[in-house]
Design goal:
The protein is an alpha/beta fold. The protein has helices at residues 34-37, 45-67, 86-103, 112-123, 163-173, 180-188, 212-226, 236-269, 284-296, 306-309, 313-325; strands at 3-8, 13-20, 24-32, 76-82, 107-111, 131-136, 141-147, 151-157, 273-277, 300-302. Bound molecules: 5'-O-[(R)-(carboxyoxy)(hydroxy)phosphoryl]adenosine (KG4) and zinc ion (ZN). Zinc ion binds at residues 112, 116, 137, 278, 311.
Length: 344
C-alpha cells in the first residue's frame, strides 16, 4: 500500500488530500481565498499567494486529521507544479519540498490538468485510457484524447476565454458576485434558457473553442435592456426574472458549445468514453446534458462529484501514484511551470 499526500495551490484554493494507492481517498480538505478576491471580481495573484502561506499548515493538519493519519505514515509528497499562477504555485512547491526533505520521502511534481482528468478515474476506477478528456475550468478549456501511458493528443482548446472565466465575467456583468459559475448555475434554474438567443460559436472541422463572442453578446444585451431599465427601474421581482433569463440563456449557450464538441470528438475518433474535469464540470446543466446526450449515443460519460471537479488535493495525490509507479519522482530543485501544457 502506498499513501500519498497531495498539495494543490495553483490558484485560489489551498487544498490537501491523502490517498492510498491512487484510488482510496482517506480525506481531503480545502480552504479558499475567494472571499478576499470578491471585491475585485477575479483572482488577485498576490492575495492568493499570501493566503496560501497563511493557511497551508492548518490545511495540512486538518487533512491529516480527516484522513486519521500522521505525517510518518506518508510514503510520498505530491504537489501541483503547473500550470497555474507562479506565486501561488511557488508556495505549494516550497512547502512540499520542505515536507519531502524533512520526512525523507520522494517528491512528485504533478500536472494540474492531468490531475483534473485523473479525478474521473478515481471516481470510476474501471475507467482507464484511451478516452476523450475534457478539462473545463477557470483557466482552461481543452479537449484531447488520453491514450494508454497517458500520452495526450490535443484536439482543441479555447482561443480566448476559458469557459469558467466566461461564467465569472458574465456574473460580474450581472452584478452576481464572484465566483460566477456557482451563482449562474443556481440562478439559471429560475430563468428560461431560450429567453435570449445568444450566439454559439461552432467551427466546422475544428475542436477549438471561443467564448468572447458570447460574452460580448451578453454585454450588449445587458447594456441595451437591463441597464436601460435602470433609468426607469422595474420592480425588483421583474428585474430578478430578467437577470435569471440572461443567466439561463448564457449558460445554455456556453454548455451547448462544450457538449457539442465533446460528442463530436467521440464521433470523430471512435472512442466511447468521455472523462470530464475542472470546476465547470460541477455545472448541473452541463452534467445533465452530457449524461442525456451521451446516453442517447451509448457513450460512457464520467464526471466526478463536484468536490472532485473543483481544485482539490486528492486528485494531485491520486495522479502522483502512477508517476511513482513509473519511477518518475521529481528532484528537490523541482521548478514551477506556470504554463505547463497538458501531457508534459
Ligand atoms: O478547476 P477550478 O476549481 O479552478 C481552475 O483550475 O480554474 O475551476 C474554477 C472555475 C471558476 O471559473 C468557477 O466559476 C467555475 O469553475 N465553476 C462553475 C461551477 N462551479 C465552479 N462554473 C459553472 N457552474 C458551476 N456550478
Ligand atoms: Zn483546476
Amino acid at each position: 500500500m502506498t499513501r500519498i499526500l497531495g498539495i494543490e495551490t495553483s490558484c485560489d484554493e489551498t487544498a490537501i488530500g491523502v490517498v492510498d494507492d491512487g484510488r482510496r481517498i482517506l480525506g481531503h480538505v480545502l480552504a479558499s481565498s475567494q472571499e478576499f478576491h470578491r471585491p475585485y471580481g477575479g483572482v488577485i495573484p498576490e492575495i492568493a499567494a499570501r493566503v496560501h502561506v497563511e493557511v497551508i499548515w492548518q490545511v495540512l493538519e486538518a487533512a491529516l486529521a480527516k484522513a486519521n493519519c500522521s505525517l510518518d505514515e506518508i510514503d510520498a509528497v505530491a504537489v501541483t507544479s503547473g500550470p497555474g499562477l507562479p506565486g501561488a504555485l511557488l508556495i505549494g512547491v516550497a512547502f512540499a519540498k520542505g515536507l519531502a526533505m524533512a520526512l525523507d520521502r520522494p517528491l512528485l511534481g504533478v500536472n494540474h490538468l492531468t490531475a483534473h482528468l485523473y479525478a474521473g478515474e478515481m471516481h470510476q476506477p474501471d475507467v482507464s485510457p484511451p478516452y476523450i478528456g475534457l478539462v473545463i475550468s477557470g483557466g482552461h478549456t481543452l479537449l484531447c484524447v488520453v491514450h494508454p501511458g497517458r500520452h495526450i493528443e490535443p484536439l482543441g482548446e479555447t482561443k480566448d476565454d476559458a469557459v469558467g472565466e466566461a461564467f465569472d465575467k458574465v456574473a460580474k456583468l450581472l452584478d452576481l458576485g464572484y465566483p460566477g459559475g456557482p451563482v449562474i448555475d443556481r440562478l439559471s434554474s429560475e430563468g428560461r434558457a431560450d429567453a435570449v438567443p445568444f450566439p454559439r460559436h461552432h467551427t466546422k472541422g475544428s475542436f477549438d473553442f471561443s467564448f468572447s463572442g458570447l460574452k460580448t453578446a451578453v454585454y450588449h444585451h445587458v447594456r441595451d435592456t437591463l441597464a436601460a431599465s435602470r433609468e426607469s427601474p422595474p420592480a425588483a421581482a421583474s428585474r430578478h426574472a430578467a437577470v435569471a433569463d440572461v443567466a439561463a440563456s448564457f449558460q445554455e449557450a456556453a454548455v451547448d458549445m462544450v457538449v457539442v464538441r465533446a460528442l463530436r470528438a467521440c464521433h470523430r475518433t471512435g472512442f466511447r468514453t468521455i472523462v470530464v474535469g475542472g470546476g465547470v464540470a460541477a455545472n448541473r446543466r452541463l452534467r445533465q446534458r452530457l449524461a442525456e446526450e451521451g446516453d442517447a449515443k451509448r457513450l460512457r460519460v464520467v464526471i466526478p462529484p463536484p468536490a472532485l471537479c473543483v481544485d482539490n488535493g486528492a486528485m494531485i495525490a491520486g495522479c502522483a501514484f502512477e508517476m511513482l509507479r513509473r519511477g518518475s519522482a521529481s528532484p528537490l530543485d523541482l521548478p514551477v511551470e506556470p504554463n505547463r501544457p497538458l501531457g508534459a
